[in-house]
């Protein structure tokens, strides 16, 4: 007897594809709500992302778009979803910090999920796991608790503000409909990433490591004077993708997670200075330092190039925030998901991942037989 499918949004994205792979590998059927793009139908896009073909039994596709009225779903899709789905894992969302079309952005993040919740009313739906971001804290510094949301904070960009609004909207509707809403807030997720907007910070981090490796080869032991805009003592709030995906799968349905809001982070992240030391030490590169922006006078061409490369994240590299994850650790401890840590060996592993070839897009072959235990 096959279990009820999980309705997953965002399966073509950086985090959603990893969540889908884990669910499928654990024998959990997945219904992916996905959209077609540039002439490529949704089933092919999901198959390319996951490396396996939908078979309608383990992996099914519902073609929809959260930014469209009624999520772009047909009446028959709604009927199918209402009679099958008990759990939604909502990983979809544009991750651009400054969207060109704020209205469409809000529709995708707020109106779309709310419409999906309403549309599932009267069916089997019991719980909704909602991917948000730890950076709903905006520009706050110091310790941020999982129980904290809107404290009147300022935001770096519309992305953070809309993510916080979305949490509130989904919680309110969930409470009205009797659906258990769980809010999951990762920090900056890193790992081998596709070229999606959500994969940008991970790809940028890996690009920086590749650049450092090239400099180390060229310099051959000679110090390379390179000052980088970043607060040395601030925490470097990255979290490995494997932990985030394992935690999402566990927290979406575990009874200990009912109604919770959790930070999916490394509890004791290294400082940015320590992270730079670990990277340069591993690569045998000397001469790099972190400085406040005002201190970088007369930047060299190399320093200018690195500053431009990191410019989208400059303010995050100045922010010193510590995300408390007591609730996540308590619930995940019961689920036997090991807390994420970043000791030197784990950083070395990330460096090694960055130095293998960038992720290639796998192409979907209709003839490929799906093997859900090997994805
Ligand atoms: N990456 C991070 O470091 C990070 C950190 C914290 C929180 N998060 C959150 O985690 C979630 C997933 O992020 P990600 O990194 O996986 O992003 P991503 O790689 O950019 O993927 C976004 C996913 O959302 C889908 N999507 C976007 N708009 C949609 C719409 N209107 N209708 C249906 N699907 C839509 C995309 O589908 P298409 O392929 O069709 O575009 C894609 O599958 C987001 O909510 C993000 O805010 C990410």
Give the distance, in angstroms, between the N- and C-terminal Cα atoms: 22 Å
Mean pLDDT: 93
Annotation, overall tally of beta strands: 13
Strand order of the largest sheet: 3-2-1-4-5-7-11
Order of helices and strands: EHEHEHEHEEHEEHEEHEHEHEHH
Helicity, in percent? 25-40%
Detail the poorly predicted runs.
364-375
Please name the fourth-level CATH homologous superfamily of the largest domain: NAD(P)-binding Rossmann-like Domain
CATH architectural type of the largest domain: 3-Layer(aba) Sandwich
Number of domains: 2
**β-strand amount:** 5-15%
The CATH topology of the largest domain is given as Rossmann fold
Number of helices: 11
Q: Looking at the structure, what is the overall shape?
A: globular
Q: Major beta sheet, specifics?
A: 7 strands, parallel
Bound molecules: NADP nicotinamide-adenine-dinucleotide phosphate
| Gyration radius, in Å | 21 Å
Computed structural class: alpha/beta
**CATH hierarchy, class of the largest domain:** Alpha Beta
Describe the structure.
The protein has 375 residues and is an alpha/beta fold. The protein folds into two domains: 6-191 and 239-265 and 321-339, 3-Layer(aba) Sandwich (Rossmann fold); 192-238 and 266-320 and 340-358, no CATH class. Helices cover 38% and strands 14% of the residues. The chain has eleven helices and 13 strands. Strands 3-2-1-4-5-7-11 form a seven-stranded parallel beta sheet, sandwiched between helices. A two-stranded parallel sheet has the order 6-13. It has a two-stranded parallel ribbon with strand order 8-10. Strand 4 (87-90), helix 4 and strand 5 form a beta-alpha-beta unit. Helix 4 packs parallel to helix 5 and helix 6 (200-219) packs across helix 11 (344-355). The protein is globular. Bound molecules: NADP nicotinamide-adenine-dinucleotide phosphate (NAP). The site of NADP nicotinamide-adenine-dinucleotide phosphate (NAP) has 30 residues, from helix 1, helix 4 and strand 8.
